Amino acid sequence: MRRPGSRSLNARVTLQHAQPGSDPDGGLTQTPVTYQTDVPCAVGPGKPERDVEDFRRFTGLTEYELLFDDDPGLGLGDFILWPEDPDDIDSKVHNLVVKGVANQAGRGVAWLVTATERV
After folding, report:
1. Rounded to an integer, what is the distance from CA 109 to the centroid of its chain?
2. If you write DSSP's letter for every residue of 67-86 in order, what string do you get?
3. What is the pTM of this model?
4. How far apart are CA 65 and CA 82, in angstroms?
5. Extents of the domains making up the chain
């Protein structure tokens, strides 16, 4: 596999590590800590899955695949912020949670990240 070209990496994302902590009641929390901004990648959203949970509340999950040309340094449970239009301050920002990271070619030239957005 060849390294992805700059034209195919047309999205810009912010990468965040999940910092574990606890709330006042002793429950576990994960606080996002930003470590990289304006990282180029390609974003491929999947088909959204909608469901009705208890109490007739609608929920949805959308799977995403993101392609990076370098190791993004992400781990399971880390966060990715993807604005649909980085030039528009009012653009929708997707909050993604990392499910997996793979070195696609085995040579470090293309990294595939799978992530989920809960709506």
Report:
1. 19
2. EESS-----TT-EEEEES-T
3. 0.84
4. 12
5. 11-118
Would you place residue 106 in the very low, low, confident or very high pLDDT band (cuts 50, 70, 90)? confident
Q: Which residues pair with 94 in a beta bridge?
A: 82
Q: How confident is the model at residue 101 (pLDDT cuts 50, 70, 90)?
A: very high
Q: Which residue has the tokens 């990496």?
A: 9
Question: Is the CATH number of domain 11-118 2.40.10.370?
Answer: yes
Look at the block and give the residue holding tokens 């040579």: 107
DSSP-assigned letters across all residues of 29-47: EEEEEEEEEEEEEEEEE--
Q: How many angstroms separate the CA atoms of 7 and 42, rounded?
A: 9
